[in-house]
Write a structure and sequence with these properties.
alpha/beta; TIM Barrel; 2 domains; eight-stranded parallel barrel; two-stranded antiparallel ribbon; 14 helices; 49% helix
Length: 399
């Protein structure tokens, strides 16, 4: 049995086809978070993008503020803030404000920026992004701790910078860094004792790098006398489930080709061989799951076999299916996949088995009790039928 209670959430880039009403797409993203909150999902991470058309949330912080007002329990994270695009003090201030306004439900996810097109529009050399992320993250963590920061880099300056409002969460909100294939995320997670989000866990390249990137984090942490906690490791993968595999494939064909087309338009990486069905090829090569709750369970167990225990499985929200089928997929996941890993039904199964094992004894006692009740009732009826003078004396009449 797992020693870690697996938690569940989503990683919402989001992906929305260009022909849809963008205002309604954003509203539906909010509705999805509300839906997940009611289903008992634990967290949602919201992305930041500025180009390429599909991923239309430019400020995860604004989105989180709206979502927090509509939900009660789900934790909300930036998935992620692209650190090289912002002054570190501005990022720290915004996260601290959200920490207070959500009463500690916010999480801070940090990354270098995924889309080269975003960086190029701002005149940022993509070759500098990972180094700038590391510089910014170091400054932000110091500000979170209440330190006064003075430093000058080739892209920002801070003169006696300090936060005049410290975090609501002590010592500060949970901080997570993203990791895909390169070791940069693992190095930062280990150095600063941070959580880690592996955004390509089911992609064969990311899957192969899982253990090595986590090991890098563990090795760096060990150099400083610390250990990494597996319950803070999050793995991301796309899936859509339905009652049957046939229904899942039927649902997913609604939007899968547009999803794959966007990913390849951004950077060619999913090249379907000529003549093959794209969705079938994607699933056969284990990039994601399209199937039943049992298929979802099998994927997560495969990740556990590869990685060992981890803390959270995050669905990559993708809009393969239409809105109603998408909601149904998450409902099935909450009904069948989440309790499988939490063992929530183990006591129920044990009680069911115990009753079945002792059925003969319990039935005999129930029948005996029922017979005794009938016998008592019949005796009372016979007594009532006797003439009053012949009845046994009771109470004061017996004195």
């Amino acid at each position: 049995m797992s020693q870690i209670d697996l938690r569940h959430g989503i990683f919402l880039p989001p992906f929305h086809p260009n022909e849809e009403n963008p205002t309604q797409c954003l509203e539906r993203d909010l509705d999805l978070i509300v839906h997940l909150d009611k289903l008992g999902f634990h967290e949602a991470w919201i992305g930041e993008h500025h180009s390429a058309g599909y991923e239309i949330i430019s400020s995860p912080e604004i989105f989180i503020a709206f979502a927090a007002e509509r939900t009660r329990h789900i934790r909300l994270g930036t998935g992620v803030v692209s650190l090289p695009y912002h002054h570190p003090m501005m990022i720290a201030d915004r996260i601290v404000q959200l920490d207070h306004m959500t009463r500690g439900r916010v999480m801070f996810g940090a990354g270098p920026g995924l889309l080269a097109s975003d960086a190029i529009m701002m005149g940022i050399d993509p070759m500098t992004q990972r180094d700038r992320m590391a510089e910014s993250l170091d400054a932000i963590l110091r500000l979170f701790r209440g330190e006064i920061v003075t430093e000058k880099t080739d892209w920002y300056t801070m003169e006696a910078a300090r936060l005049h409002l410290l975090p609501y969460t002590k010592p500060h909100p949970e901080v997570a860094v993203v990791s895909a294939v390169t070791p940069s995320g693992g190095r930062l997670a280990g150095k600063y004792d941070l959580s880690m989000i592996c955004v390509a866990a089911t992609n064969p390249f990311g899957y192969d790098a899982l253990a090595s990137n986590w090991q890098i984090a563990c090795d760096v942490a060990a150099e400083q006398g610390r250990s990494m906690a597996p319950n803070r490791l999050r793995l991301v993968g796309p899936m859509h489930i339905a009652e049957t595999r046939e229904q899942a494939f039927k649902n997913a064909r609604w939007g899968f080709d547009r999803y794959l087309g966007y990913l390849n338009n951004n950077q060619p990486r999913f090249i379907v061989p000529p003549g093959q069905d794209a969705l079938e090829w994607f699933v056969e090569n284990r990039y994601g799951v399209c199937g039943t709750p049992d298929d979802a369970i099998a994927l997560i167990e495969r990740l556990q076999e590869k990685q060992g225990e981890f803390g959270v499985f995050l669905h990559q929200a993708h809009n393969w299916a239409d809105w109603e089928a998408t909601k149904r997929s998450y409902e099935l996941y909450a009904r069948y996949v989440m309790p499988h890993f939490s063992n929530a039904n183990a006591p129920r199964a044990g009680s069911f088995q115990w009753c079945g094992d002792n059925r003969a004894e319990f039935s005999a006692k129930r029948q005996a009790a029922a017979k005794a009740m009938f016998d008592k009732h019949e005796a009372e009826q016979r007594e009532r039928a006797q003439p009053a003078a012949a009845r046994p004396a009771r109470g004061r009449e017996a004195w």
